[in-house]
Every structure is written in structure tokens, then in C-alpha cells.
């Protein structure tokens, strides 16, 4: 390292600086999407929490997913919204490391919760007689704990690999968050080995969990096709439809961000390419689970009717 180079103590998140005339419009758009996302996830958690008929594995996993996605949005979007209106778009060195760790940890947790939700649907449809024993509350807690532990262990490994690099000179990150590959690119050393390693970890984690989910659905579909009644097949498919749609959306957008090649110039559009995964996916997830789930909608209608029922309307 040259003597006239000083260590980086903060980073500048360039974010949407390339679109100065759109800053206010983007703020309004992303703020509305953020509010809808938070309200959707909180609504799911409240409904599941107060309705004891929903205290079954499928909805307890959905509660865990909504809880994780709530924090996932909190880690990224408030800072991004502030930067859209602020003149100074800086983040401290420690703050950048913390944001990276939490963002990727929660993202990994979401992937693993979706994976165990697929496993839950497999047991419920393919092994219904053994399901109450195989998926009891203790197993649910262990699977949720595994999801959080696994997600954050992977994130810790990747974050440690990135921040062991020396940073001096340029401190401008071409992104609205401290994303793995964009931060690696501002290190003052040959970052190709580290970039390959963290990309391989991301690709491996995404591929293994996605393939596991797809494998469970192969068995699920084969089992459903053996059901003789049309009503039985439709009911079985309906319990899996929301989860499968969210999986396709979640992993589809994640693949765009994490499975792209590391060729020079591949990160030029990282800011725009990350919007679907960081903002749109958390928005769509609660909407899909709410609109396509009869039990959630039924519990929501009951909760609203109880709220609207005034004391004078009640019969004693």
C-alpha cells in the first residue's frame, strides 16, 4: 500500500445518482411499496398470531417468513429512502459491514424458510399419516432455528471474506446498499479470487435450496396425480400454489442478481437489477400468500368484523 493512501472510514452509496431528476419520484414510489410491504407482513403475523386455528406448521412457517422479510426490508429500504433525498449518501465502514451481514443473512434465512416450507408441504401431502409426528412444534422450532443459523453463518463467511480486504482510495459504491460484489470492487487489491469465492457460495446456496424445493414438488405432484377425486387434487394443489409462486419469484429475481457472470461491466446495472430482489420480492410475497389463501382471508374477515362490531351492536 502506498504511503499517501489513507484507509477508508466511510463509503459513498452512489445508488440512483445517475438519475438526479427522478430522485423524488423514486422516493414516493419506493416509500409506497415499503409501506405496503410492511403492512402486508405485519397483517399476516397479527392474523396468524391471534387466530389459533392457524397455529399449524404451514402458517407458523409463514409467520416466520413474514417476520424475517419485515427485518429484511428494514435493513435496506429506510436507508435507501433517506439517501434519495439527502445530499450526503455516506455510510460508515462498520455500518456498511453490518448492513451487508444483516441483508445477506436475512436473505439467506428467507431462502431456507422457503425450503423448509417446501419440506413441510411434502410431508403433509406425501406422508399424511406420519405428518403430525414428523412435523410437531419442536421440529418446527428446530427448522426455523436452522434457517436463521444457516442464513447468518453463510452471510458471516461472505462478509468476513469481503472486509478482510484492504480499502483505501476510492470509496464510492455503485449501489444503494453494501452489496457483496460491489463492495469487493472498490478494494485496493486484486479482488477476483474473493469475488469468485463469494459468488460460488451464493450460487451454491441458491442452487441447493432451489433444487431441494423442486425435488419435493416432484414427489408432491406425483402423489397428487394419484388422488382419484378432482376435488382432492384441487385442494392439494391449492395448499402449494402460493408457496410455489413465491419460490419462483424469489429465486428468479435472486438468480438475476447472484448468478450473473463476473465479467467486466457486469455490475454496471447492479442498482437497477437489484430492485426486483430487494424491493419487489418482499412486496409480492405477502400479497401472494394473502390473496391466494382462503384461511388467511377468512381469518382476516373475521378479525375485521370483530373490530367493526361496536359494544351496542353486541347481544348480551
Structural topology:
Layout: E1 10-13, H1 23-50, H2 57-85, E2 90-92, H3 93-126, H4 131-134, H5 137-163, E3 172-173, H6 180-184, H7 192-225, H8 230-258, H9 270-291, H10 294-308
Parallel strand pairs: 1-3
Antiparallel strand pairs: 1-2
Helix pairs in contact: 1-2, 1-9, 1-10, 2-3, 2-9, 3-5, 3-7, 3-8, 5-7, 7-8, 8-9
Give an account of the 3D structure:
The protein has 316 residues and is mainly α. Helices cover 72% and strands 3% of the residues. The chain has one domain: Rhodopsin 7-helix transmembrane proteins (Rhopdopsin 7-helix transmembrane proteins, Up-down Bundle), CATH 1.20.1070. Helix 8 packs antiparallel against helix 9.
How many angstroms separate the termini?
Answer: 81 Å
Radius of gyration: 22 Å
Total DSSP E strands: 3
Total number of helices: 10
Can you say what the CATH homologous superfamily is? Rhodopsin 7-helix transmembrane proteins
Quaternary class: single chain
Concise structural overview:
The chain is mainly alpha-helical. It contains 10 helices and 3 strands, in the order βααβαααβααααα.
Features:
3 strands, Rhopdopsin 7-helix transmembrane proteins, mainly alpha, 3-stranded mixed beta sheet, 316 residues, globular, single chain
Amino acid at each position: 500500500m502506498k504511503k499517501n493512501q489513507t484507509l477508508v472510514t466511510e463509503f459513498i452509496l452512489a445508488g440512483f445518482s445517475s438519475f438526479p431528476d427522478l430522485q423524488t419520484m423514486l422516493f414516493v414510489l419506493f416509500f409506497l411499496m415499503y409501506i405496503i410491504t410492511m403492512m402486508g407482513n405485519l397483517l399476516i403475523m397479527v392474523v396468524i398470531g391471534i387466530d389459533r386455528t392457524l397455529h399449524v406448521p404451514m402458517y407458523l412457517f409463514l409467520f416466520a417468513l413474514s417476520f424475517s422479510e419485515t427485518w429484511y426490508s428494514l435493513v435496506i429500504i429506510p436507508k435507501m429512502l433517506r439517501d434519495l433525498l439527502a445530499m450526503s449518501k455516506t455510510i460508515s465502514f462498520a455500518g456498511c459491514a453490518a448492513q451487508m451481514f444483516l441483508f445477506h443473512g436475512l436473505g439467506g434465512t428467507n431462502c431456507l424458510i422457503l425450503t423448509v416450507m417446501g419440506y413441510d408441504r411434502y410431508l403433509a401431502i406425501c406422508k399424511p399419516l406420519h405428518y403430525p409426528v414428523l412435523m410437531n412444534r419442536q421440529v418446527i422450532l428446530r427448522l426455523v432455528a436452522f434457517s436463521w443459523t444457516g442464513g447468518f453463518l453463510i452471510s458471516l463467511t461472505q462478509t468476513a471474506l469481503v472486509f478482510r480486504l484492504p480499502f483505501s482510495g476510492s470509496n464510492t459504491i455503485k449501489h444503494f446498499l453494501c452489496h457483496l460484489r460491489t463492495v469487493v470492487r472498490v478494494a485496493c487489491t486484486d479482488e477476483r479470487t474473493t469475488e469468485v469465492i463469494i459468488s460460488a457460495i451464493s450460487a451454491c446456496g441458491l442452487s441447493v435450496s432451489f433444487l431441494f424445493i423442486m425435488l419435493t414438488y416432484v414427489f408432491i405432484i406425483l402423489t397428487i396425480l394419484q388422488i382419484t377425486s378432482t376435488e382432492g387434487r384441487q385442494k392439494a394443489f391449492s395448499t402449494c400454489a402460493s408457496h410455489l409462486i413465491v419460490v419462483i419469484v424469489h429465486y428468479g429475481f435472486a438468480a438475476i442478481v447472484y448468478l450473473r457472470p463476473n465479467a467486466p461491466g457486469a455490475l454496471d446495472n447492479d442498482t437497477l437489477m437489484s430492485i426486483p430482489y430487494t424491493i419487489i420480492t418482499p412486496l409480492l410475497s405477502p400479497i401472494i400468500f394473502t390473496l391466494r389463501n382462503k384461511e388467511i382471508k377468512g381469518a382476516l374477515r373475521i378479525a375485521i368484523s370483530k373490530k367493526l362490531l361496536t359494544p351496542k351492536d353486541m347481544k348480551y
